[in-house]
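Sequence in, structure out.
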Amino acid sequence: MANNNDINSILDSLLFIQKNNYQYKDSMQKTMNFEGYEEKPYLDSSGFPTIGIGNKLESVSYKKGQMPEKYSNMEVSKEKAINNYINNYLEIEDVVKKKYGKGYNELPEDARGVLNDLAFNLGGFKLFDEFPGFIKDFKKGQYGEAAKELKFINPDEGNMDISKYWEQVGALNTENKNLKRSDNRGTSAYDILLNLKK
């Protein structure tokens, strides 16, 4: 995996070239750091073949260790991976804008960053389809309540069991081992949302 400073310097130069996209730098960089860079294909946490910086190669899930043979000789350079990532990120943000509707552009920058990161990780439609309580609280500006929707199964009805999402992104492990919370996308999003004011 490439050094984050190395990846970030490439991102800086690419975004400088693409000046119209420069306003996305901070949130894009954060998501990119969560994803990391892999030169060769790997199976992500859901079993999808992926390469570069979270670039899903197909929508078929495979069991651990069963990477399809067709990807065995595939490689992607850091620069190409970052170009693909920027395009994927901007496509995801377009989905988020459309699904969120009115008010997206007025959201605090950190709130938009959290939404875009979750959508990049889960898929734009999946975020809105599978996290309705989160979206409902988010649209009301109740960011602390939205944060609980990420961590717990159904906090509105008193089910404070840890959610599948929280476990899948390793947030539970981060908490149990007292690791740096900003390095995990779950705990990072949770903390950002708790600190946002309505």
